[in-house]
Amino acid sequence: MQSMNGSAIENFSCVIYNIFLMNCTWQAGRDAPADTQYFLYWQKSRDEEEMECKLYIKDENFRNMGCIFENVSIGIEKAYFLVNGSSKDSLIQFYDEYVDLYKIEKLMPPSNITVKCDEIKNDCIIHWQRPQISHSNQDMCFKYEINVNYKDNLKGKPIYTSIQEGGNSNVFLRSNTRKKYVLKMRAAGSACFVNPAWGEWSAPVEFGNEEIISSSVWILLEVAIPLMAIITIYLCKRTGCWKTVFPQIPGPKPALFTWADTNSELMESKIQSIASENEEIVLVADMVR
User: Fold this and answer.
1) CA distance 58 to 69
2) pLDDT tens for each residue of 239-283
3) What digits encode the pLDDT tens for the residues 8-36?
4) Predicted confidence (pLDDT) at residue 169 exceeds the cutoff of 50
5) Contact by Cβ (8 Å): 14, 63
6) Which long-range contacts (CB under 8 A, 24 or more apart) does 233-242 make?
7) pTM for the full model?
8) 3-state SS, residue 103
9) In angstroms, rounded to a whole number, what is the distance separating the alpha carbons of residues 20 and 71?
10) DSSP state of 61
11) What are phi and psi of 81, to 5 degrees?
12) Residue 201 contacts residue 186 (beta carbons within 8 Å)
């Protein structure tokens, strides 16, 4: 009995993530009978036995549409995948494929990312650890992309981007020490048997000194304060409020006695002179009468 055309699965794909997990998915053949059930087998290398999936992913009709594998390790040989099917009505075509496991691994971001800034030199040293994978522990197997942006402009174009081959540190020179910065990183394979596609971005890492008042507020204050001063001076000139705000200070009163008046003999002589003058004035007034 001949297999039914169009009954084999379509769009088969697998991805390795979180170091040891592998997820494979597929779609049912476009002409497969409704009762078709699929089964996945894989063989890591020629020297290992073929294994069937133990944890199937099912659709609403309980048809196997994927599989999750645990404790997966990546080797240098291509792995072999086979999906066959069964139906009461006809034979189901099988699907098979050889896959380089390292090429389907989704790299985790670098870990333990730290940033230490020198407040005198204004440079910041970024440190990290390579992504964890099951088949390599060498830093030279990776390249890294570093993006830095202002915290208050995360949706804008990064102010700093660096792609670095290997290593585990990088130096970023701050242009503004009053700003808060946000950094994120991702990794890709550069050599060895590591996926050359970029992996996931790391969680944002904040560093730097955040200014209390933003630059836009500083600009507003620099314009508003002189303008308010000019308006205040103009209104005071019109209304004469200067006299109320700054009243005129009276001058010193003339002293009743000078320094010379403190001499007792002089003061007695002056008093007698004033008294005699008063007597003369009184005599003249009596004569006139």
Assistant:
1) 15
2) 666 566 556 656 555 544 454 445 556 555 655 665 555 554 443
3) 999 999 999 999 999 999 999 999 999 99
4) yes
5) no
6) none
7) 0.66
8) helix
9) 5
10) T
11) -120, 140
12) yes
